[in-house]
């Protein structure tokens, strides 16, 4: 049997250099928070570079697991599934369910504008804690349980595209969507538009 390999779905020097710098930063850091801080400059540079994301990974997706035409496109996945880079494409007027990620990492806005609503970390008493408006170049760290439950909505007339660097196989792991009113959680696997997940 062939050993699993890293998947550079978008295989470009920019993506390879970014992932290499992320791995160096993680290896040299003593905690997730420290790693996030070390990755910030490279992540900011990726968000500021208008050319590297091929248009096919910035398209919405009518049949996606997120609903609302929201497309989650895998760009890179580590062989051991401990690191992924993907784009999340949210059409104008669409919003994600309230959801968690179950892994630390960085999320930033690449195109368009979004409102983000962050919920308190205890799903039994889900409570809207913070709302923030995001513009291209804005990014934030997810350090579960802190800031792990949120919802994003596109506020621009054009589709928004955000970049996610997370330390799990976010599209394929079972995580949770939450009812914003009751806090009731539902098992949720978003999938990727362009890559299959193993059978549930
Ligand atoms: Fe999210």
Describe the structure.
- The chain is of the alpha+beta class and 200 residues long.
- Helices cover 16% and strands 32% of the residues.
- The chain has 2 helices and 12 strands, in the order E-H-H-E-E-E-E-E-E-E-E-E-E-E.
- The strands form 3 sheets. The protein has a 6-stranded antiparallel beta sheet with strand order 1-2-3-10-5-8, covered by helices on one side. It has a 3-stranded antiparallel beta sheet with strand order 4-11-12, with no helix packed on it.
- Strand 2 (71-77) and strand 3 form a beta hairpin.
- Helix 1 runs antiparallel to helix 2.
- It is globular, with a radius of gyration of 16 Å.
- The two termini are 22 Å apart.
- The structure holds fe (ii) ion.
- The site of fe (ii) ion (FE2) has 3 residues, from loops.
- Fe (ii) ion binds at residues 99, 101, 150.
Which percent range describes the beta-strand content? 25-35%
Alpha-beta classification: alpha+beta
**Oligomeric state of shown chains:** single chain
Helix content: 10-25%
| Average pLDDT number | 93
Distance between the termini: 22 Å
* Strand/helix succession: EHHEEEEEEEEEEE
Can you list the strand order of the major beta sheet? 1-2-3-10-5-8
Contiguous helical run count: 2
The number of strands is 12
Bound molecules: fe (ii) ion
Largest sheet: 6 strands, antiparallel
Poorly predicted tracts of residues? none
Query: Whole-number radius of gyration?
Result: 16 Å
Overall 3D shape: globular
């Amino acid at each position: 049997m062939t050993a699993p390999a890293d998947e550079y779905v978008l295989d470009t020097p920019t993506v390879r250099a970014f992932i290499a710098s992320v791995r160096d930063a993680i290896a040299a850091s003593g905690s997730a928070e420290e790693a996030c801080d070390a990755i910030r400059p490279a992540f900011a540079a990726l968000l500021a570079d208008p050319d590297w994301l091929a248009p096919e990974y910035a398209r919405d997706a009518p049949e996606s697991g997120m609903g609302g035409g929201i497309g989650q496109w895998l760009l890179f996945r580590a062989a051991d599934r401990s690191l992924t880079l993907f784009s999340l494409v949210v059409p104008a007027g669409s919003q994600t369910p309230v959801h968690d990620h179950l892994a630390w990492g960085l999320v930033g806005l690449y195109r368009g504008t979004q409102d983000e609503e962050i919920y308190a970390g205890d799903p039994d008493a889900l409570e809207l804690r913070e709302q923030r408006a995001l513009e291209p170049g804005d990014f934030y760290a997810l350090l579960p349980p802190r800031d792990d439950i949120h919802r994003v909505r596109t506020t621009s007339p054009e589709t928004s595209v955000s970049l996610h660097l997370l330390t799990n196989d976010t599209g394929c792991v079972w995580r949770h969507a939450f009812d914003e009113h009751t806090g009731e959680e539902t098992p949720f696997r978003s999938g990727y538009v362009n890559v299959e997940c193993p059978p549930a």
